[in-house]
Amino acid sequence: MRVCTLGDLLLDVIVQPSAPLAPGDDVVASTRIFAGGQAANVAAWIVELGGSARLVGGRGDDASGRLAGAELAARGVELAGPVGGRTGVVVALLGADRDRSMASDRGVAADLSAGALDPAWFADCDWLHVSGYMLSTEAGAATAAEAARLARDAGARVSVDAASATLVGVVGCALFAERIAALEPELLFATTAEHAALDGAAGAPTTVVKRGARGCTILRDGRAEDHAAVAATAVDSTGAGDAFAAGWLLGGPELALAAGARCVARLGAMP
Fold first, then answer.
1. CB–CB of 44/243 below 8 Å?
2. Looking at the predicted structure, is the pLDDT value of residue 98 above 70?
């Protein structure tokens, strides 16, 4: 199975302080740098779990972009899209509970236009997986809608990840839901917070609510079906939802929950 992901290839900087941050002062921390971005993470996990993946997105031609691109290519992900400009960076701060808070700068990835899309990028895909960050702007939403049209015309199904409850709030629930609906997705992924932020305004034939250590809930045909999480020792939750989405697209809830558990048991979002 081939999955195309639409969205960002960024540089992830993961910071794990040894103690709570001290305003105006310094604490010792462990810091790691990886390739990242929601679409890139899903693509990397697709390959890790036995599928093939193509990332469609704009990426920088600076040192950070070359580093991130080389890492993703080494993982077996095909890269498609314009190259040029400044690579975005996401800083993830790990708390004592192993959960993370993030500050995101999408860089040139936010500039991908509908006119830059090549139909050939979607011609052989079984799924197009759209990062919700594409829906943060009117132009990005138009690009996502065109990508969904191209993919569907080629026989692919479409999935969307809501990406961020804060993002839904900034865009506005009704408008964000409208942008999701324009993609006509078969499948919507959302965390508990994202699902609450959407307040039932957005949906798909199947909505999967990611509930972290409590597993997931499948909403379909007016019914809710709960699945328990796979036990794991949490190290870092960064990217766990992306690993979950990759597993779901390839093998449904069992593989999704297993992939999420693998991801939280290590540092970083990539496999």
1. no
2. no
